[in-house]
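Title: Comparing notes on inverse folding

I've been comparing how different people in this forum approach sequence design from structure. To keep things fair, I'm posting one structure and asking everyone to reply with a full sequence. Here's the target:
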């Protein structure tokens, strides 16, 4: 089924959807344009953008009438469609529309606006086979970047220098973008789950955590690996092996139909029983696709079953303030009898020679 057809199932006569976020427009049109607005109704669908993107839109978008906003603007183009298609109620994405944008549309559009973000974005929780293929490609690029960047790690280089090498490896191997700004931290900075690369110099005996992903044709990958430089102390090995054991327990509990909170609990119990419970503060994982953080997620806040063909991360961690932290993350597809793990980089502790 085309993604546009999924949107049409939400609509009755007189209803439409206003797609303003880049991600919902990409999903509905199955083509990515940086700027634009789309309207979806049972009587017709139109996609509006400006002169910078109009040729790409005309060549790449199917299922929508593509129109330039030059001389018109978005509001007039939308009102023309509202009149032509008999729209009295327009569902919008309340979680991505700014207040100023909402007020402009609410004041000027000739129909009522109704929040429908959850419905508009709910379809993305289950991936089509072609979407999975793009995500496999994104993850293959990410795995290859890891294999290539590890030999580049040297004592004396900074976190920022290593981050630059990692980004280069992603693009060199086919990434069409970054899924998110990479996290590259070393030594005591690895205790910061979302630390930012800086001028700290990598030293022998450090852990290095690299959390990153490629975007390929708009679809994301996400993985984390923690490596040691030169050697790892017994405490470092114990923490690392506890995180790995927790991740494997979470993966073993993962399959379509299992509530997200149960998957989280399977991994969290391992860390808690090892005495590190207070040092695992985030969720076990999150779904991803066009965005690197989507719903539904395998975490303690989600009592709902994970859907078939959801794609989600598996990323438990332990973070000891001022000392070091460890996170290991794979991306996997939820199937009826388990998960397909898209990440193929080794998970055993890697010690980088000095």
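Reply #1:
Here's my take.
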């Amino acid at each position: 089924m085309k993604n546009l057809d999924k949107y049409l199932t939400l609509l009755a006569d007189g209803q439409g959807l206003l797609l303003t976020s880049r991600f919902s427009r990409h999903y509905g049109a199955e083509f990515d344009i940086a700027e634009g607005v789309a309207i979806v109704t049972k009587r017709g669908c139109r996609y509006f953008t400006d002169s910078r993107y109009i040729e790409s839109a005309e060549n790449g978008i199917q299922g929508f009438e593509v129109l330039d906003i030059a001389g018109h603007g978005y509001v007039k183009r939308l009102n023309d469609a509202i009149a032509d298609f008999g729209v009295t109620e327009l569902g919008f994405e309340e979680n991505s529309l700014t207040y100023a944008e909402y007020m402009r549309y609410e004041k000027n559009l000739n129909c009522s606006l109704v929040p429908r973000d959850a419905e508009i974005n709910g379809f993305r929780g289950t991936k089509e086979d072609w979407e999975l293929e793009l995500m496999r490609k994104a993850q293959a690029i990410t795995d290859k970047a890891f294999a290539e960047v590890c030999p580049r790690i040297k004592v004396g280089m900074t976190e920022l220098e290593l981050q630059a090498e990692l980004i280069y490896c992603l693009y060199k191997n086919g990434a069409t973008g970054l899924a998110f700004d990479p996290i590259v931290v070393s030594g005591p900075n690895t205790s910061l789950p979302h630390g930012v690369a800086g001028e700290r110099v990598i030293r022998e005996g450090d852990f290095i955590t690299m959390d990153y992903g490629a975007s390929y044709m708009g679809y994301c990958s996400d993985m984390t690996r923690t490596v040691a430089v030169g050697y790892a102390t017994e405490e470092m090995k114990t923490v690392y092996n506890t995180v790995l054991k927790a991740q494997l327990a979470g993966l073993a509990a993962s399959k379509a139909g299992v509530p997200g909170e149960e998957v989280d609990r399977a991994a969290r119990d391992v860390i808690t029983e090892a005495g590190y419970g207070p040092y695992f503060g985030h969720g076990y994982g999150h779904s991803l696709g066009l965005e690197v953080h989507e719903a539904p997620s395998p975490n303690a806040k989600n009592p709902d079953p994970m859907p078939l063909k959801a794609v989600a991360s598996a990323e438990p961690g332990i973070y000891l303030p001022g000392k070091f932290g460890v996170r290991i993350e794979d991306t996997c597809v939820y199937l009826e009898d388990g998960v397909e793990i898209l990440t193929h980089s080794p998970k055993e502790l890697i010690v980088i020679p000095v």
